[in-house]
């Protein structure tokens, strides 16, 4: 296993920062690595604490009387200079349970009310989002959405369209649109499952 020798914070932003990691690889060669992190300091980084609290939450929710539509957002993303389809998501606030974060974030982004499901921990624990570049991890929350779509609670800096997609629209999105990989994999489950959230029963 490699050895981390030094970590230095390079930026001082509110939500995401760049860190330089100096290390020695398992082959005894020097490593000069850059990591994006939600941590406020070197001591709070996951490479320092060894812990993995969720930085954010991703919400997979179904909508409609027949639970036959999935709640998506189509959001403008600056790194790619265009729109991408994603699940509603957001950061977990300090001291906040991530299930509560999911309820709050779904309302803020879509105007809908989330009723979370109780699922096996293996399906909702924090997993890393892009571990080659960042120590960020997100927990998944599954549930049913209700109410009327509204963008009134969105932040002024956000450019988000709410999409309630049935299976035919999901097929089109996967074929034709830019989609985040986490969202894409879940949409494949949505297409395959005969009943809503069928895949969540596997570990029981």
TrEMBL record:
Q: Which PROSITE patterns match?
A: NUDIX (PS51462)
Output the SUPFAM superfamilies linked to this UniProt entry.
Answer: Nudix
**Gene3D superfamilies attached here?**
Nucleoside Triphosphate Pyrophosphohydrolase (3.90.79.10)
What are the protein's UniProt keywords?
Answer: Hydrolase
Swiss-Prot/TrEMBL cofactor(s): Mg(2+)
| Source taxon at top rank | Bacteria
Recorded hits in InterPro entries, A to Z, give:
Nudix_hydrolase, NUDIX_hydrolase-like_dom_sf, NUDIX_hydrolase_dom
Tell me one GO molecular function of this protein: hydrolase activity
Q: Which residues form the signal peptide?
A: none
The residue ranges of the Nudix hydrolase domain are 50-196
Q: Which residues form a coiled coil?
A: none
Tell me which Pfam families the record gives.
NUDIX
* The protein's name: NUDIX hydrolase
The record lists the organism as Blautia ammoniilytica
Source taxonomy: Bacteria, Bacillati, Bacillota, Clostridia, Lachnospirales
């Amino acid at each position: 296993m490699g050895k981390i020798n030094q970590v230095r914070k390079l930026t001082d932003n509110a939500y995401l920062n760049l860190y330089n990691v100096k290390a020695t690889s398992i082959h005894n060669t020097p490593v000069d690595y850059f990591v994006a992190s939600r941590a406020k300091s070197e001591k709070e980084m996951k490479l320092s604490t060894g812990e993995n609290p969720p930085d954010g939450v991703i919400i997979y929710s179904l909508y409609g009387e027949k639970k036959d539509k999935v709640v998506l957002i189509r959001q403008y993303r600056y790194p790619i200079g265009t729109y991408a389809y994603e699940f509603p998501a957001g950061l977990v606030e300090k001291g906040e349970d991530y299930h509560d974060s999911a309820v709050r974030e779904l309302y803020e982004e879509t105007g809908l009310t989330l009723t979370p499901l109780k699922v096996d921990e293996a399906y909702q624990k924090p997993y890393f989002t892009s571990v080659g570049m960042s120590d960020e991890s997100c927990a998944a929350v599954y549930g049913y959405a209700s109410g009327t779509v509204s963008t009134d609670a969105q932040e002024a800096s956000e450019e988000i369209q709410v999409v309630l997609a049935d299976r035919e629209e999901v097929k089109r999105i996967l074929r034709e649109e830019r989609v985040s990989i986490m969202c894409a994999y879940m949409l494949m489950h949505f297409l395959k499952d005969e009943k809503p959230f069928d895949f969540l029963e596997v570990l029981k």
